[in-house]
Design brief:
The protein has about 55 residues and is α+β, with helices and mostly antiparallel strands. The chain contains 2 helices and 2 strands; from the N terminus they run βαβα. It starts with a strand and ends in an 8-residue tail after the last helix.
């Protein structure tokens, strides 16, 4: 199952690196438009490791 971390922007890169190293597939910070999150989810679901069909 894909994991997308959503966080408040703090300008620091370390939380992004820690999240990705911990296994997250993507990282999004506020503010973002809902369509951006939808597109990121669609892209992740099309990866072979998450394709269920």
């Amino acid at each position: 199952m894909p994991i997308i971390l959503v966080s408040e922007p703090d300008g620091e890169l370390e939380p992004v690196i820690e999240g990705i190293e911990a296994g997250a597939d993507d990282f999004v910070t506020f503010p973002f438009k809902p369509i951006e999150l939808v597109l990121r989810i669609k892209l992740l679901l099309h990866r072979p490791e998450y394709s269920f069909y």
